[in-house]
Amino acid sequence: MIGPVLPSAGALRPLGLDQVRLAGGFWGERQERNARATIPHARHWLEETGWLGNFRLAATDDLAPHRRRGREFSDSEVYKLAEAMAWEVARGGSAPLDELSTVVAAAQEPGGYLNTMFGRPGQRPRYSDLTWGHELYCYGHLIQAGVARLRGGVRDALTNAAIRAADHVCVEFGPTGRQALCGHPEIEMALVELYRATGTARYLDQARLFLDRRGQATLPDIELGRAYFQDDVPVRERTAFAGHAVRALYLACGAVDVAVETGDDKLLAAVVRQWERTVATRTYLTGGMGSRHEGEAFGEDFELPPDRAYVETCAAVASVMLCWRLLLATGEARFADLAERTLYNVVAASTSLDGRAFFYTNPLQQRGSGPLLDRSRPWPRAASSERAPWRDVSCCPTNVARTLASLGGYIATVDGGGIQLHQYASGTVTDGDTALTVATGYPWSGGVRIRVDRTGDAPWRLSLRVPAWAGEATLVTPEGARRVGPGYAVVSRAWRAGDQIRLKLPVAPRWTEPDPRIDAVRGCAAVERGPLVYCAESVDHDPAVALDAVDVDRSAPVTERPLPALGRDVVALTVAGDRGALPVAAAGAGWPYGTPSTVEPEPGDLTLVPYHLWANRGPATMRVWLPVMSTQDRR
Ligand code: FUB
Ligand code: ZN
């Protein structure tokens, strides 16, 4: 079985990307685009920026500090791209991985140390800056790339480099080694996966050691506090995810992995509690996490401003990774629900329609459109409303690339009694002598058809997730139709080849309101359709419409229409509202406060587009949360 997470215990066992093959449709097309456009694009930029060249220079010991290019963690982008390529090859595609592997392996030092930033003549000594240096973080990504290769059945220069690095870490940071931690968690889950892939117990022991060491004030008290790297409170005692969002979520992934492999139910329960609180109070409608630009961090409970939302793409990838681990451990649909929301509304949003430009942050409101970006150079994080081809900190594109290449491994599972489908994507699912074909136009339409192509004689259960947003769905089986509620709709029978069942999910548009404690969007509503969050984008409206001042009429019907400019099957929505009156008498006079305006706003419809597709038609302003007209304002 080939997949990114293969636990030895838990409620569900994942089916690998060799068993779940995506074919067309929303995710199949994105996976294809990832292979065709994003992976070569990232490969180009790794060369262009010199981040791959660093390895070549390191191999010849010619890497004085002034010659090294990129940030302290740029090695990890090479590893994440190698991981993406490894999954791509493993699922039957092709990618120039051998070259990357050779270049990486040649830079490794005797004893297993590998980092282009430290330890060579003129550079700072190795492990002299564990707080910011990212050496162990980079190993984590190297090890994950090595595991991807191993799972694909290949033992090559990359896997050897990963194993040698892991062995080096176990000696250097083991019980009798440095009592130290990396400022950026990541290596924990990588070591557990290497343990799973090789059976070598010391990798698991080392992961547990790192996990237990964190929260003991091992790292220095920096300006942002030790909470920034989760070294303020032991992971078992934490109540919600806090600090730097990617760090917090990667650490939680490692904690689940350690808990599952060591049978530590208390640790698993602690992470589930933290996840619950975080989802209840610190998560955006899109599934995005991390509301603060300062420290790229989670905010306080209900601190979820739409315009200042940080919502780093990597945090969304990490959240999907965590949801998948929790789903496998517990079998509970709520984890697949959040993974779905995050995949459709942040991971899918992060990449442009051509697969060659990327968001780093994913705010829910864009106030200024900014310039059209020149695609020939990297850009800072928030230069424009447009996606950038590359950034000086380009952790997100390679993270999305590895996720899409391995997406087949996040769709379906088995248990003793049958198969569970957690995400709906057209393609095939096989497990032993059972084979299914899934055909769906999801998320544009709500119908999912599953045909049994092959099966043994013994009865088994097919479980289909009904998302919480659906409320209810219709399941049509050979025995007839029935209503099914959120969770898993289970069909248990002796199947025959040719049997078909259909799930009909209600994807009609619906209004959604925020908890009033999210002050920043109180009095607003958003429109969702199926798993998709919608937004108003300036390019669909005439310039007189002030998106930052519009109101919507929730009592009027929401209508649907095709929007082929953004893709086949894409559905746009129209809502009634007004074109935005300035709300106070003094507005426009250089002071944004005053008595309520008596000027009647002009009625006007608003077009809404799927949030994940915004900013594909040039620079734009945008908002997800729409102020709702009070009853007396309705005409
Ligand atoms: O520090 C490495 C990566 O860069 C983090 O995960 C991202 O948040 C970005 O800061
Ligand atoms: Zn990132």
Short description:
With 635 residues, the protein is α+β, with helices and mostly antiparallel strands. It has helices at residues 25-48, 53-59, 74-90, 97-106, 135-151, 157-173, 187-198, 201-213, 245-262, 265-281, 313-330, 333-347, 395-405; strands at residues 13-14, 20-22, 365-366, 412-415, 418-421, 427-431, 434-440, 447-454, 460-466, 473-477, 480-484, 487-493, 500-504, 509-512, 524-529, 532-537, 551-552, 559-562, 571-578, 603-610, 622-623, 626-627. It folds into 3 domains: 13-410, Glycosyltransferase, CATH 1.50.10; 412-442 and 447-504, Immunoglobulin-like (Sandwich); 509-633, no CATH class.
Percent range for β-strand residues: 15-25%
| Bound ligands, each once | beta-L-arabinofuranose, zinc ion
The structural domain count equals: 3
Biggest sheet features: 10 strands, antiparallel
Radius of gyration equals 25 Å
Please report the distance between the alpha carbons of the first and last residues.
60 Å
Assigned CATH class of the largest domain: Mainly Alpha
Which architecture name of the largest domain does CATH use? Alpha/alpha barrel
Count of DSSP-assigned helices: 13
Question: Which regions contain 5 or more consecutive residues with pLDDT less than 50?
Answer: none
Report the count of strand segments. Answer: 22
Remind me, CATH topology of the largest domain?
Glycosyltransferase
The outline comes out as: globular
* Mean pLDDT over all positions: 95
Protein structure class:
alpha+beta
In percent, how helical is the residue content? 25-40%
